[in-house]
Amino acid sequence: MKTILGLAAALSLAAAAPALADTYAIEHVTLIDGLGHAPQADMTVQVDGDRITAVTPSALAKDLKGKRIDGRGKYLIPGLIDAHIHLKGGVAPQADAAAARASATQALASFLYAGVTSVYDAGNQADVILPLRADERAGKIASPRIFATGNLITYPGSHGDSMSVRISDFEKDKALLDKHIAEQQPDVLKITYDEEGWGSRPMITLMPQPLMEQIIKYYNQHGIRTTIHVSNETRSLEAIYSGADSLAHPDIQGPVSDSFVKLMAAKKVPFASTLTIGENYSRLAEHPEFLDQPLYVASFSAADRETMKTKVRADYQARHWTWWMKVMTPVCLENIRKIDAAGGVVALGTDQSSGPATHREMELLVQAGIKPLEVLKIATHNAARLLGKEDELGSVEAGKFADLVLLSADPTADINNAKQIAWVMKAGQIIDESKLPLAGAKQARRFAE
């Protein structure tokens, strides 16, 4: 395990499948750059290796290299980023390691198929997620870029402590923090800080705020960003003033105050939207037909979809939690809309483990009243900001990684058009969908070069 983890640390983002990257000129395309700018018609984007090397009006494009792709009538966006997942196959301890890995690689394939080129796993079994991260960076598996926490850090008895490194005293437990940093090399540290776990649940132990502040400072001194699990305004404020770099969830326990909205706009602390995880309960209970959409059919086996439509659905229909989440989701939507409108930084995150969930998250953000163009920024540039990777990912600009999605319809007119994928490119390589280990069914390649 240590050898694998050491490899993960040694390999940079640029190491993802560099030998397979090619040279392309994507011509006469409508560009949606991820930065919130209005779509730009008739643009040319040059890709050389794993990087974007030029973005210019087609009339000014000169000395084009490599394979030329006619983008007339199509729309180019940055690769989508899901800045909060828990990868299937690793959340709970697995007796069968091979089955856990197979489940995880199928889920990763579903992200790529859906146009998601980067994910952040915000807490998982280290022996599942960290070898996958190493393999992704070595170009050994078909996967989005994987950023990972590994094990969470929490206070004994707090939310998620069954998959966490438990810290009760900073000085006495510092060796555990050092071991986590050295062996797991988290891209972002996840701390849980919520006396009710997620939403309105029975009271549980809460990490002392001074301890949280010490841990955040310590990881920052090692160059590691932090994200804090919260679900209400009070805990969000305490996390922010303890030095949190981001928040893992929006406030869902009640309407946010005007002063909190202004603070989020001033501080610009990114937070993951994670609407889908709660809304999914009532959606499945009331509208299981969504599982027949093409992305879901490709991403889940027929047997799993049938189980969700029957056994899981019945379970959700009987749970009070389902209907509490249905009531509170509109509250959360309005909280997110207000913060975004004020200039706060909303970043797309689903808290789930499939590419289709990313698209559902965008649909819900539009339902909140956020324009599709802004939602695309939330799903790309803002998500990269949460990860501290906006200098490399999240927008179509020269010098950044060539993580791109070509669409056949305008996503700013209808966010569902983000599903109309002509091809997905990661690190300068156009993905061959026919080779993805999707759980649903083998898919034909979308783009024949």
CATH topology of the largest domain: TIM Barrel
Which CATH first-tier class of the largest domain would you pick? Alpha Beta
- The tally of strands reads 18
- Average per-residue pLDDT, rounded, comes to 93
Major sheet details: 8 strands, mixed
Total number of distinct structural domains: 2
- Distance linking N and C termini: 39 Å
Helices, strands, pairings?
Elements lengths: L1 H9 L12 E9 L8 E9 L2 E7 L9 E4 L4 E4 L1 E6 L11 H17 L2 E6 L4 H12 L7 E4 L3 E3 L9 E3 L7 H11 L3 E5 L16 H13 L3 E5 L3 H9 L4 E2 L10 H10 L3 E2 L3 H11 L7 H6 L2 H17 L1 H23 L3 E2 L7 H13 L4 H7 L2 H7 L16 E4 L13 E6 L2 E2 L19
Parallel strand pairs: 1-4, 1-5, 6-7, 7-8, 9-10, 11-12, 12-13, 14-15
Antiparallel strand pairs: 1-2, 2-3, 5-16, 16-17, 17-18
Brief synopsis:
Residues 75-430 form the Amidohydrolase-related domain. This protein is α/β, with parallel strands linked by helices and 449 residues long.
In words, what does this structure look like?
- Helix 7 packs across helix 11 (320-342).
- This protein has helices spanning 2-10, 97-113, 126-137, 174-184, 209-221, 233-241, 258-267, 276-286, 294-299, 302-318, 320-342, 355-367, 372-378, 381-387, and strands at 23-31, 40-48, 51-57, 67-70, 75-78, 80-85, 116-121, 145-148, 152-154, 164-166, 188-192, 225-229, 246-247, 271-272, 346-347, 404-407, 421-426, 429-430.
- The chain is built from 14 helices and 18 strands.
- It folds into two domains: 2-77 and 398-435, Urease, subunit C, domain 1 (Roll); 80-387, Alpha-Beta Barrel (TIM Barrel), CATH 3.20.20.
- The longest helix has 23 residues, at 320-342.
- The protein has 449 residues and is of the alpha/beta class.
- The strands form five sheets. Strands 1, 2, 3, 4, 5, 16, 17 and 18 form an eight-stranded mixed β-sheet that branches. It has a three-stranded parallel β-sheet with strand order 6-7-8. It has a three-stranded parallel β-sheet with strand order 11-12-13, with helices on one face.
- InterPro entries: Amidohydro-rel (IPR006680), Metal-dep_hydrolase_composite (IPR011059), Metal_Hydrolase (IPR032466), Metallo-dep_Hydrolase (IPR051781).
- It holds the Pfam family Amidohydro_1.
- This is Amidohydrolase family protein.
